[in-house]
Amino acid sequence: MNVANIQPKIQSLQPLEINKLTRACLKAYFDNTWALYELLFSAIKSEETLYLSPDPLRNPLVFYLGH
After folding, report:
1. pTM for this one?
2. Do the Cβ atoms of 20 and 42 come closer than 8 Å?
3. Residues 42-65: b if buried by 16+ CB within 10 A, e if exposed
4. How far apart are CA 34 and CA 28, in angstroms?
């Protein structure tokens, strides 16, 4: 097995405890959240899908990609 091809496990993390928050902890939490977000949107295979609104009370998916 090639170690370079092993991806780190990405998972949802428990909310941070504000009274124990450090800069490094906050950065790690943000980086993990960003990786999850990118992984979610990488599942969209066609550009047209970004402009669909899966629920009439929600914005099209492209809105969430940009925000």
Report:
1. 0.66
2. no
3. eeeeeeeeeeeeeeeeeeebbeee
4. 10
